[in-house]
Amino acid sequence: MSNDRPAGDDLAAFAKRAGQLAGWAARTGFEFTRKLPGVEIAEQVIKQGERQLLSELRRRLDEVDDPYHAAPTAASAMNRPDSNGARPVEATITLVHTRDRLEPLRAAMAELLNHSIGFGRERAREYLYAIILRQLTPDEARILSALSDGSPFPAVDVAERTNLGGAGRFVLRNASTVGKAAGVSLPDQVPGYLTRLIGLGLVELDEEVPSLETQYEILLTDETVREAEKAVKRAKFVKRTVHISRLGAQFWQACDPSAG
């Protein structure tokens, strides 16, 4: 790979390769042909390729978009002489030194401020999406995929019922059937996953939808919900729905590996 190739191009290429790999598996109905001769070996090769691609993609995201990483790197570049033995006079960021020691946090903030000057609308959006993508776990990506078509899923909070029938102390928030629908690896972590996705602005909560009553009944039998119910003397269930947000839909459209 050429050293003068823009980092953004390399990142896009790796993302495209990962998307093509996932898309191929989906188009060929890979899960339905696993019992065919030789497919088990092929599956191992595909999974290994996926891991390598995703690992490299995450590394690229960390290096290109992490201001904390960029600031010390820039500091190192400032102190490194060029081929003629001269040291660079200018730097792209303002580095902060205290007693001849670089303060990475302050330098990272300077990096962000410099980005805010040079970024246009599209580049700023790509940067935002890259930062969000780096924070997601594989299970959270699955949940976002399940929500990407805009369908609502039931969600429930478990609280201790007060004497007046209201909700007192909450012992569980954001339990939902979306985790099971998405096929997450850690079903008991779904409430935490949704809390994080809500915090990132990718997912929103809304009012209870009566047409999902059957799904609410199924959710109330979930092991995580039952354990929370046992933690209080009298349980009160607060029913809501969870769905993808406007930002989440835009983010998914930009990152959907099956598109393009």
UniProtKB/TrEMBL annotation:
Domain of life of the native organism: Bacteria
Pfam families (UniProt xref): Abi_alpha (PF14337)
Protein name per the record: Abi-alpha family protein
Organism: Amycolatopsis speibonae
Source species taxonomy: Bacteria, Bacillati, Actinomycetota, Actinomycetes, Pseudonocardiales
